[in-house]
Amino acid sequence: MSPPRRAAVWLLTIVGAVLAGGCGSSSPPTLHGDPGTYLLTPAQLPSPDFTVYLPTAPVGAGWLDPSSSAALQRDGLVEAAQVEYYRPVPFATSNGPITLTAAAARFSGAAGAEAAMEQLDTALDARSGATPAATGPLGDAGHAVSTPGALGGVPAIEIIVVWRVENVLNSLTAEGRSGGLLLDQLLPLARTETATELRG
Q1: Nearest C-alpha neighbor of 42 from the set 94, 85, 101, 97
Q2: Closest CA to 193 of 142, 131, 117
Q3: Is 19 exposed, middle or buried, given 0-12, 13-18 or 19+ CB atoms closer than 10 A?
Q4: 16 against 198, higher pLDDT
Q5: Does some domain include residue 1?
Q6: Helix, strand, coil abundance in the chain, percent, nearest 5
């Protein structure tokens, strides 16, 4: 092969490698951290009167919906963790969450986390009395559902927010007085947890 021909082949090889590298960048990154390190801390909560009711600990695939446990395992669940907070204030006059549970579950890939989120969204929406709600932009995808109840004759509400950040599936579960607990109070907390995950 003549020198000019070799130079042309060499140049085409380099260009092809650069283009291939650019095309490969479409795959989403994967988070590898311990899910427990992503969870909300007391300092990140909206008021200082929250106490740790159950400290951060590993949980199984059924942390949010036991009936979805097997499906989440098939979707590639690697590990999950959860923490629960409590606020000792009068329920009948309270605003904001009385209990707040944050969980994060790491999957082997983003596709598995996406499939798991679809499974959980469907299961939560099917609960008796559940009302789905949009979260607006939240991570890579977000969904919320509220369910009415009562505590000591006072109307109550449970709001669950589920969202995905790459291969990590997150949930916030809050309980409080109906009218005193709103989805808009939980979304900033979800964005805070998202920022922690993206920082790695």
Answers
A1: 85
A2: 142
A3: exposed
A4: 198
A5: no
A6: 40, 35, 30
Domain encompassing residue 72: 28-199
Residue 111 has pLDDT above 60, yes or no: yes
pLDDT digits (tens, 9 = 90+) for 126-162: 999 999 999 999 999 999 999 999 998 999 999 999 9
Residue 135's domain is classified under what CATH number? 3.40.1000.70
Strands (E), the chain: 51-59, 77-86, 99-107, 131-133, 141-151, 154-165, 168-177
pLDDT at 89: 95
Interatomic CA distance for residues 156 and 143, integer angstroms: 20
Whole-number percent of the chain with pLDDT over 70: 86
**Does residue 107 contact residue 169 with C-beta atoms inside 8 Å?**
yes
Measure the CA–CA gap between 136 and 152, rounded to whole angstroms.
33
Query: Counting beta carbons within 10 angstroms of the beta carbon of residue 20, is it exposed (0 to 12), middle (13 to 18) or buried (19 or more)?
Result: exposed
Say if 5 falls within a structural domain. no
Domain count, the chain: 1
Mean pLDDT of 65-74: 98
